[in-house]
Amino acid sequence: MVLYGREAEHAAVAGLLARAWEGRGGALLVRGVAGIGKSELLAEAARRARTAGSEVRVLRTTGTEAESVLPFAGLHLLLRPVLTEDRLAALPGPQSSALRGAFGLAEASPEDRFRIGLAVLTLLSDLAAEQPLLCLVDDFQWLDPSSAETLLFTARRLGDERVALLLAARDDLPDDGGPSPAPGVPELRLASLAPGAAAELLADRAPDLADGVRATVVERSAGHPLSLVETVRSLTPAQRAGAAPIPAELPVPARLLEGYRARIEGLGTARTALLVAAAESGGELRTVLAAARALGAGPEDLRTAERAGLVTLTDAAVAFRHPLVLAAAYQGADPAERAAAHRALAGADDAGRDPDRTAWHLAAAAAGPDEEVAARLDRAGESAWERGAFAASAAAHRRASELSPLSFDRARRLLSAAQVSVVTGRIAQADRLARQALELTEDRTLRAWLGMVRGAVEDAGGNPRTAAYLLLDHAEPLAGSDPGPVVPMLVLAARSAWAAGDGALIGRVAAVASGVRPGRPATAALSALAGLVSGVSAGGSGVNGPMAALRSFVDEIRGHNPDSHLLRLLAVDCAVLLGDDEAVLGLATAEAARCLARSTVLSLPEVLRPLGDVQVATGRAREAAATAAEAEDTACSTADAAGPAGPLPARRLTAVADRIAARVAALAGDEEKCRAALERSADEDSAAVLALLDLGLGRPERALRRFEDALRGGPVAAVVLLPATGDLVEAAVRAGVPERAAGPLAAFTAWAEAGGQPWAAAVALRCAALTGPEEAAEERYAAALDRHRAAGRPFEGARTELLYGEWLRRARRRTEARPLLRNALEAFERLGAVPWAERARGELRAVGETASAAPEARPDPLAALTPQERQVVRLAAAGTSNRDIAARLFLSPRTVEYHLYKAYPKLGVGSRRELAALAGGFEESPADLP
């Protein structure tokens, strides 16, 4: 079939297919109004695929409004032809289980969301290894969100697969500039046909039209392809010959819909069969016929519709000729008829094979509140949550609320929908649902849970102080009775108050927590937060007790790993306040994995932020790079989230990557990159980063001013800046005003002693050597170096060696200074701390050793690789299989193979055995950082 006037569109699709058959897969979104030719372009792609040099497998599905709430319905239809037991069994175990759970073939888990996407990617990769693969998705805008998100996850990872994914989505208006339903996928917009192309189309479809008639139809159709075709179909012989007038208004999408409705209306009982097929929309002929018989229709009615050109039939399926025909069949029926069709479809599942689908059919058939149906939908919502279909879960709970006879149940089910929405980052939706529920109930506990949702919404929206007050107002009246929501509300309130930098609010949280039943570890930790703020404000007096309480809470969480996500987040916060790098790394790494698995993306930045900070501070360059990459990659996936709040978690995750980049740039003395990253991230802790940059670039006065300006922010700011006190003290000393660091140093020293962390103790001793009497300096420097050996912060250790070496050089003890300065230089070069390395090099020259005499950093064999190649190579060198690497990095096994194929020549190896032998040279390198 010829598609006239679509040369550029043909070329775009042909290019996509050609690249895919060569192993450079990709995706393309075709957009345009109804009837503009999207479906025909997809059909043409299928025809082109079948005539390719090698046989191409074609999979297809169509989104439908009726099934947009059924989790993974569209994905199941797409994969159904290849979803054999052998294919499922060939997938890695966790991926196979996740995909089975998504399709209701096994027990599901909410932790399977990303595994489902990875399973689909692996399945498509396996299929493409056998023959090229074309996946077609029509009416993508109606695809259920869980299927859409999975396909978009896959679309971004097709670079090395023989897979082409072609999506078609309807726009409401010809110039629709709304957000893309497939963010990140290249778009191809279809416009109306030019007059010449429209005339060619008519000449092909209706060669008997009189010239004047053809010109009139072209003019009045405004180049809309389906309008042209349907007009030709509707003209009488006299009109075709020009002997009768042509209608003044020819079909456009809205009128086309009416035209299809009129044609369907005249089909008698076939109309009923079409309605059932539209309501079922999955196309399963057996189910459609079973439901149609219950309404007095049968197979002959479907054959009548096929003869009328409205559907096509196979032995197993019924397919509508065009999505507009399906819409006309469904929307043309009155509400009672649609309800009857859904009721019949619910009854057709007599074996109870798909209780969730049955629940939605019963909901569509309900004429008013119905607790039995509402309860079924509630269970469908829980099932969708367990399968990782969060949008479907929220929709099911929301519809269950609408069908609930009692106000309390309506509020309770809206709460469930709001909770699902908030933890998956759909903030505006969560707020709207919580507000609706608050108007339905006066139950204090239920209102407290709803208040917690609203507090989370305010905090996510950048209003942490408002969030803290809101949460406290709901929690305080219930503290004495200590029902379920009180402790998590207080934890969230404390974190919000901390984000707001409001010490008084933190004190109020502690006061409310003191009224909760004793023995709750979290309440003691909340009181300790307030105690720490007060103690640091008093110059370090009395911090021992709060620090001990924080230590006890962190140990409790690490030992018992509670179910509460908020308690685990609080433990990460407390570990940061203790300066316990090991605890932060362990807790944050585990929590990040949980957040990714459970798709609680709103909290993921709160975990990755301290994780990245500690990775940079402890010199874990590759791990920090991986954290930044994980944040960026998840941000891209999160942007798929439906609703106006979709971009919020994505922005926060991107800010994490920028925060890491800013810290690395500050260490490297790259002012332009540092400032640009801080500006993008809107980092609230930027003072310490810029101060380190200034200090490295020889601007101690400016660094000191930054610290002093930040400390005016109040007692919380003083606690936040504690780990950077070593920078503050050095800035003050080098600026010639050491007395201006006395107060912060006293608080830091008390904090370091109470926390018991070797790195903090070492920095405190170094600061004491800098600011104390000369006769005590050497002893303190030596003691600091002794602590550094167990500290795990190489940059701090190198700075102490540098300062000690400078002190020895000033004391004319050059021989003793040289090894310290050489060690410092080597560490700074390894860490990419350029200005600090230059300072160490200058000191070495001052003690009579040339820069060239300093030991050179060992060359990094991975320097020539891309970041993703480095990740793949390191895992491969450790013996990880390609499939396991793919699962770790959210890639397909073929992409892993491609990265290894590209990396081996760069490394000068030809096998995994040689790669493993080279692995000893894989040092941490600043080149791996953003």
From TrEMBL:
<dbReference type="Pfam" id="PF13191">
    <property type="entry name" value="AAA_16"/>
</dbReference>
<feature type="domain" description="HTH luxR-type">
    <location>
        <begin position="858"/>
        <end position="923"/>
    </location>
</feature>
<dbReference type="Pfam" id="PF00196">
    <property type="entry name" value="GerE"/>
</dbReference>
<dbReference type="InterPro" id="IPR000792">
    <property type="entry name" value="Tscrpt_reg_LuxR_C"/>
</dbReference>
<dbReference type="InterPro" id="IPR041664">
    <property type="entry name" value="AAA_16"/>
</dbReference>
<dbReference type="InterPro" id="IPR036388">
    <property type="entry name" value="WH-like_DNA-bd_sf"/>
</dbReference>
<keyword id="KW-0547">Nucleotide-binding</keyword>
<dbReference type="InterPro" id="IPR027417">
    <property type="entry name" value="P-loop_NTPase"/>
</dbReference>
<protein>
    <submittedName>
        <fullName>LuxR family transcriptional regulator</fullName>
    </submittedName>
</protein>
<dbReference type="InterPro" id="IPR016032">
    <property type="entry name" value="Sig_transdc_resp-reg_C-effctor"/>
</dbReference>
<keyword id="KW-0067">ATP-binding</keyword>
